[in-house]
Each structure stands twice: as C-alpha cells, then as structure tokens.
Write a structure and sequence with these properties.
This protein has 2 helices and 2 strands. With 84 residues, it is of the alpha+beta class. The protein has one domain (21-84). The longest helix has 14 residues, at 41-54.
Length: 84
C-alpha cells in the first residue's frame, strides 16, 4: 500500500490526483531539475505543497530543493528538517 504517513494508527493513502496545465518547456526543465536532485517531480511537488500549507500566512516562498532528501518508498519525506 502506498502511504505518506500514519495518523491515529491509520495509514494516509494517496488517492487523489491534481492535474495542472503548464508549458512543455517548463515541465521538461522541472523534471530535469528534479532528476538532478534524485527526486521525482511528484515527490518535489508534494513536499512543496506540505511546506506551503504549513507556512501559509507567511510571506516567505518555500524553496523546493532546500536541504531535503528524496521521500522514502512509502512516500514519506526521508529527511531531517533544517530550520532556519
């Protein structure tokens, strides 16, 4: 089962998709940048979304590649957060 965390003993299953329209060149550049950081585009976008939601109300733009390691096989971030 593909999960990204556990809440109250129950796995949180990824069951919803998000579809966006972007320019082909932007997609290509983004995927290449993700691959260069040994991450999938989906991993980077999920991490960005988590940080964006956690920091909403903040004027600071989250950095997509700020001191992170790729998510582990279960989809959970496999990194130690480096707080500023």
């Amino acid at each position: 089962m593909d999960t990204h965390g556990v809440s109250n003993g129950c796995p949180l299953v990824k069951s919803v998709g998000l579809r966006i329209r972007i320019e082909p060149e932007l997609r290509r550049a983004f995927v290449e940048a993700c691959q260069a950081n040994d991450q999938s585009a989906a991993q980077v976008l999920r991490l960005f979304m988590r940080r964006f939601v956690a920091g909403r109300g903040s004027d600071e733009q989250p950095d997509l590649f700020a001191h992170t390691a790729p998510e582990n096989a279960s989809g959970s971030p496999a990194y130690q957060r480096n707080e500023k």
